[in-house]
Amino acid sequence: MKGKSFNLRIPGPTPLTSAVLKAAARQMINHRDHEYEEMQKRIIGNLQYFFQTKNEIFLLTSSGMGGLEAAIVNFFSLGEKLVFFTVGEFGNRWAQIAKRYGANILQIKFPAGKSIDKDEVCRVLAENKDCAAVFITHNETSSGVLNDIKSIAPFIHTHPGKPLFLVDSISAMGAVNLPLDEWGIDVAVTASQKAWMAPPGIAMISVSPKARAREVHAKMPKYYFDLSLYREFSVKNQTPATPAVGVLFGLDKALSDMRKIGREKIFRKHLELRDYLRQGLRKLRLELFVPDKDASPTVTSIVIPQAIDYHHWLEILREKYGVVLAGGMGETKGKIIRVAHMGNVSLQDIKEVMAALKKSLQEI
Ligand SMILES: Cc1ncc(COP(=O)(O)O)c(C=O)c1O
C-alpha cells in the first residue's frame, strides 16, 4: 500500500482535511507579534464555543498527557485526597500522575468495557467527605466507553467538601456534547490530534473561577505547566514559551471550519456514524466490546474472534485494504481491536472499514 493514502482510523492522530493540511504547512511567523496574537485569540474564542464555557482556556505545547499533568500540579498539594473513578488505561495514567506528585489518591476502578456506576460514585463520595477533587475520564479511548458526566455531576456538586470536578475529555471534546458551564466542570482537558482534526502537539485546558481560587494554595512543584505563567501571557494572547506554531495554524483552520458547521451538527454526525458502524459490525457477526448504553461516539471496540491472530488481522487490513485500525491497550490488549471515528470522518470511510473487515475475515 506504499504511496497510497490510508484510511487512518486510529484514535489519534486523526486524518487532517486538505484545508488543514495546507494551513499547517505554511511559513512560520513571529509568535510575539500581532498576527500570532490574533490567531491565538481566535482559537480561544472558538474553543470557548465548543467547550460551551466562559472559563479561561490555555494552550499548552504538549500532547494530551501534559494537559492531564497540568490539571494535577496547578490545583493540589502533597497529601490531598483526590478521588479517581476509572474505567481503563487512560484513567490509570491520570491517577499515576497524581500519585507521583504525592497526592493521597483513592482510585475506584470499574471493569474495562463498562461505564462508571453512579451508585458507587454516590457511596464513595459519601464516605470521603475530605476529598479535594474528583477525576473522571469522559471517553475511555482504550475500550471505547463514554461516561455519563451529566448524571455524575450532581453527586460532586452537592458534596459537602466542595471538591473540584476535573474531566479528561481528550478523545471526546469537539465530537461529543460537554457543556462545561452547564454541567459545572471545573477543569477539562483535550488535545489537538483527536476530534479537533489538527496535528498532535497542543493540549487545551479550561479552568473555572473555583479551580483558579485553589491555584494560589497549590504546593505541588511545577514550572513548564505553571498556569499562572500562561495567564500572565494570555493577556497579550501569547504563551510563556514558544508554542507549536505549525500545529496552531492547523488548529485555527480546523476550528474555523468546524464553527461554520456548528457544534450540534458535528455531535449528531458522530452519534450517527457510531450507530451505523455498530449495526454493520453486528451484521458481520462481530461482537461489540461495549454495550449500546455506554458506547463511545468516537471509538468502537470489536472483540477479537477466537483463533484470530490480531496482529495478522491488523496487518491484512492495513496492507491489503489500506485501513489502519488500533489494537487494545492495557487490560484490553489482545482482546479487542478499535475503530476510531472522530473528527475528519465520513460515512464513506466507515463503509470502507466495514468492507475491509468483511473481506479480511473471509480471507483469514
Ligand atoms: C482519554 C485519553 N487520555 C489521555 C490520552 C493521552 O494523550 P496523549 O497521547 O496526547 O498524551 C489519550 C490519548 O489517546 C486519551 O485518549
From TrEMBL:
<dbReference type="GO" id="GO:0008453">
    <property type="term" value="F:alanine-glyoxylate transaminase activity"/>
</dbReference>
<feature type="domain" description="Aminotransferase class V">
    <location>
        <begin position="24"/>
        <end position="328"/>
    </location>
</feature>
<feature type="binding site">
    <location>
        <position position="338"/>
    </location>
    <ligand>
        <name>substrate</name>
    </ligand>
</feature>
<dbReference type="GO" id="GO:0019265">
    <property type="term" value="P:glycine biosynthetic process, by transamination of glyoxylate"/>
</dbReference>
<dbReference type="InterPro" id="IPR015422">
    <property type="entry name" value="PyrdxlP-dep_Trfase_small"/>
</dbReference>
<dbReference type="InterPro" id="IPR015424">
    <property type="entry name" value="PyrdxlP-dep_Trfase"/>
</dbReference>
<dbReference type="InterPro" id="IPR024169">
    <property type="entry name" value="SP_NH2Trfase/AEP_transaminase"/>
</dbReference>
<feature type="modified residue" description="N6-(pyridoxal phosphate)lysine">
    <location>
        <position position="194"/>
    </location>
</feature>
<dbReference type="GO" id="GO:0004760">
    <property type="term" value="F:L-serine-pyruvate transaminase activity"/>
</dbReference>
<dbReference type="InterPro" id="IPR015421">
    <property type="entry name" value="PyrdxlP-dep_Trfase_major"/>
</dbReference>
<comment type="similarity">
    <text>Belongs to the class-V pyridoxal-phosphate-dependent aminotransferase family.</text>
</comment>
<dbReference type="Pfam" id="PF00266">
    <property type="entry name" value="Aminotran_5"/>
</dbReference>
<dbReference type="InterPro" id="IPR020578">
    <property type="entry name" value="Aminotrans_V_PyrdxlP_BS"/>
</dbReference>
<dbReference type="InterPro" id="IPR000192">
    <property type="entry name" value="Aminotrans_V_dom"/>
</dbReference>
<keyword id="KW-0663">Pyridoxal phosphate</keyword>
<protein>
    <recommendedName>
        <fullName>Aminotransferase class V domain-containing protein</fullName>
    </recommendedName>
</protein>
